[in-house]
Amino acid sequence: MELPVNLRPDQASPEWLSKGDNAWQLTAATLVGMQSVPGLVILYGSIVKKKWAVNSAFMALYAFAAVLVCWVGWGYQMSFGDELFKFLGWPHVAMNQEYLLKQTFVGYLPNATMVYFQFVFAAITLILIAGALLGRMNFHAWMLFVPLWLTFSYTITCYSIWNPHGWLAKMGVIDYSGGFVIHLSSGVAGFTAAYWVGPRATNDRERFPPNNILLMLAGAGLLWMGWTGFNGGDPYMVSTDASLAVLNTHVCTATSLLTWLLLDIVFFGKPSVIGATQGMITGLVCITPAAGVVQGWAAMIMGVLSGSIPWYTMMVLHKKISILKHVDDTMAVFHTHAVAGSLGGILTGFFSNPKLCRIFYLVDDWQHYIGLAYGLKTGQFKAGFKQMGIQILGILFVIVVNVITTSIICFLLGRFIPLRLNEDELQIGDDAIHGEEAYALWGDGEKYDGSKHNSVYGLEEFAQVPPKAEA
């Protein structure tokens, strides 16, 4: 087959390009994107009350689209571009054709692939924040919050931890795939934003049943399986480390789910489906900073801890600590992402295997990336404790940045537009906000009409008005 005129073979497939790595990276990015659309769109739309189904799903869908435009406009370069400050890059546009076709800063990939891959991570972070705000945030305020938070919060933590020139990256912090940048950030930011937005309506906060648990499980399944790309794509190549990361991810997640399930059975007597889903999420979050740098046995231990410690903070401590009771965190992102993300970061500092770290970081550095457990085993106590200290420093940095930036954004935004819906909208939900409803069911406040609804299965017993009274 002849190449088109004016196109050289080295332009389509230059020597530095790895077709296998590039194909996997694009696939992994799409898997991560599917965690958000449709994964979290379905999960959010089904785990809330029926009257909030459309609004909750649409908050996720809007964030996905808005982040992409901001990401290629300035967000990517602020996160991975040339240094502006020690913790931030220059806000250049990342849509120049010449730039997009060049080799990226790491791996055998074009910049276009890296921009796409990092976008889906930025998008899911905002969508996770939305989980704390479901059922009461003004949608117009959310439309402004998304680009502001991406610009002034996400880029700072991303540049500091993932950019090779970031100050925490240079120190040797280990965040394999976003335990700090994504999960701890979204958990802290979501909790902080929930404080500023305020709680749901009283009747919603007291009783908030899912409108479709089976559909919720479908969304959760997409989230779990999509994590194959989430953690498997971060070596930026088709490597043995990528394979290890994928297996560790699923083993830790399954162990965490089962641990949470057993605790629910022991203490509450019933195997909760929603509880098992929470255990699944905490396992995914906990293993994320460590996925490809710990051994399988460590991943299982992390699963036990991620299925028990966040369970304890959610089921026990939440009822005892005033600030946790006061802030209305709809999807409990503080527990599932902030607590589980911090736990994962600390356990990464303890269990990280120096050999696996050198495979992932492609360096022969014996001063960094030594978990405390291996430091104690090999007599490198100082290096092990240093790594643990760097992990804790990273956690503190992410917490401080997100509390401050999220508070400033919410405070300033609230000066111009209400952060919370008004009382009428809180009572009505989707129909008042969007003029649309998720389900059109005859049994939702309507009178039974035998001419429209078949009574073969005794549906007349569900009529809102008894037949005699109706007559």
Description:
Its main location: membrane. It is found in: Cell membrane. One of its GO terms (molecular function) is ammonium channel activity. Helices cover 66% and strands 1% of the residues. The chain has helices at 9-12, 19-47, 53-80, 97-100, 111-130, 139-162, 167-171, 179-197, 202-206, 213-232, 240-268, 273-287, 296-315, 322-326, 333-351, 354-361, 372-378, 381-416, 423-428, 430-434, 467-470; strands at 83-85, 88-89. It has a two-stranded antiparallel sheet with strand order 1-2. The longest helix is centred in the last third of the chain and has 36 residues, at 381-416. The protein is globular and about 60 Å long. The protein starts with 8 loop residues before the first helix and ends with a helix. Residues 447-471 have low confidence and may be disordered.
